[in-house]
Amino acid sequence: MIFWPHDTFVMETDLTPHEVVEVLKEHVEPTKWMRLTHSHATFQGDVRVDGFTITRIIHYRNSFLPVVTGTFLPARGKGIQLHIRMSLSSWVKGFGLFWGCAVMWMFSTAILFGEREEEIPGMIYLIPFGMVAFLFGLMHIGFWPEARKQKRMLVEMFHGKEQSLPS
């Protein structure tokens, strides 16, 4: 769905699955609620033999930070392919859905229970669309700079080459 920002790409690397897991373990530590120091790995999350789910450790607040999910598949030649998807966290999607439903409920209430057309000025009908547009912009402004940064970091980490996805 285009409303939720997300990115999917495939990266090919000459590393073996075991080497990829080792590289990830060097750069990923277990998820913590709070960090008091700046000495830590680049990412936090879960690394498995067949893939990973990670987020970048940042020292500022960004609820729209991408959650990176990757799976390992054999490549045509030497090495492996990493299928990577970046998306918003489930909590943020849930809040966005709640926000959208609340805005639509307010809009519907204004239409259904407005007794006379004179009581509700015409511009009031634009407010819900402005609120949804605000949320849309906020999500994309918070997500995309971090997604581009994380994509560069992952390509660098795995000495990989991004492959174009078939459309």
Shape: elongated
- Give me the Rg, rounded: 21 Å
The fold-level CATH name of the largest domain is: TATA-Binding Protein
In round numbers, the mean pLDDT is 88
What is the tally of beta strands? Answer: 7
In short:
Helices cover 40% and strands 24% of the residues. With 167 residues, the chain is α+β, with helices and mostly antiparallel strands. Strand 5 and strand 6 form a beta hairpin.
Describe the structure.
- The chain is α+β, with helices and mostly antiparallel strands and 167 residues long.
- The chain is 40% helix and 24% strand.
- The protein has 2 domains: 6-89 and 145-163, TATA-Binding Protein (2-Layer Sandwich); 92-131.
- The chain contains 3 helices and 7 strands; from the N terminus they run βαβββββααβ.
- Strands 2-3-4-5-6-1-7 form a 7-stranded mixed sheet, with helices on one face.
- The longest helix has 31 residues, at 127-157.
- The chain is elongated.
- The mean pLDDT is 88.
Topology overview:
Layout: E1 6-13, H1 17-27, E2 28-29, E3 43-47, E4 51-56, E5 67-74, E6 80-87, H2 90-113, H3 127-157, E7 161-163
Parallel strand pairs: 2-3
Antiparallel strand pairs: 1-6, 1-7, 3-4, 4-5, 5-6
Which labels suit this protein?
single chain, 167 residues, alpha+beta, TATA-Binding Protein, 2 domains, seven-stranded mixed sheet, elongated
